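WP5 quarterly update. Target: Dicarboxylate/amino acid:cation symporter. Source organism: Weissella hellenica. Length: 406 aa.
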Amino acid sequence: MKIKINLTTQIIIGTVLGIILGAVLGPKIVGIKIVGDIFLRLIQMAVIPLVFCTVIAAIGKLPIKQLGRLGMRIVLWFTITTLIAALAGLVLGWLFHPGVGLHLTLDTALTKEITSNKVSSTDMILGFFPTNIFESLAQGNTIQVIIFALLFGFVLSKANTNQQYDSILMGLQQLNQLLVSLIQVVLRLAPFGIGALMAAVTADNGLTVLIPLIKFLGIFGMGTLLFLIGLFVMIMLRAHLSLHTVMHGFANILLIAMTTTSSAASLPVEMHDAEKRLGVSKEISELVLPLGMALNSNGLAMYLALACVTMTQFYGLSLSFMMMLKIVLLAIVACLGTVAVPGGGLVALTIIVPALGLPLESIALLAGIDWFAGIFRATLNVVGDTTTAIMIAADEHELSQVSVSI
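Structure tokens (predicted):
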């Protein structure tokens, strides 16, 4: 009987083999790094158009009435919780130094560019807004692309009241599906690409590469637990839910998120239990949860911020205030449109790492433990969306006290 090994297991095997080869063969195998570099470039080439299409389609398909007062409230909750998660990741990395102990070398030119890159707050804010969207797309400026996509999506939703622009919306959704399929094809190369990068890193640094990875997972797990407790306390106080109701209502949601490591796979259970076990109205659930899956991600924001701080520590770089601010902002915007994508953590890293001036190959270390980190990411993503739905329902008097008393 033919045994089929899933992609996650293949990546873990590739990572382990890469570490073994790097440790055994040493400098002889450093040249294999080119295989990993090609893989990262293939992932990166589809990211900007994917984010562009996903954000426009997610906003554009919503009726304009839902983008009014209620839409602004949803966006506000998404932004606040994601910002707090990103800040938490930054603080955790700064306090516990998961990347210290591993000394990777950074190109001299890159080092000067990162350390001397002093940008005023005015220039940084102006940098969010594109002057030419085609230039932004060509340069891979994620923040500018997302700003344009949000505005274009809003205009598309407003103009499409009589479905006269359904063909444009359908075209964007179809293009998005093709780009997702392209990323799925590229991800089949992940065991080889990540294995090659891990072999090269291990050849240069030895088995000491394992220590920061274990520290990273431990710190991320601790941060996830603390954030979950904070979210649960918030809805207990604001929505007047009992501890028993919260535990009962989130039991299946947590189980599915942790075992599938997928926000998309968790959505059906999330919507069912939000309505039946937590008392959220069907109208709020059907609006907030699918939109949250596409545009909101507390777990990914925390992961990205912590990962970026960890990577700067790999290279012995000090973090200025402006760089910390940039990490937080990039962690927030990189979440848009990548949460439901297969390999979303890896895809988001290919957005944020080059934007910080760090080399793409630094992604390899964290890519090797991506499945384990995905457990924490998906759990926090899904719970963050559900708690937002509860808060919105409570504010709109759409939370059934009868259902939540079970």
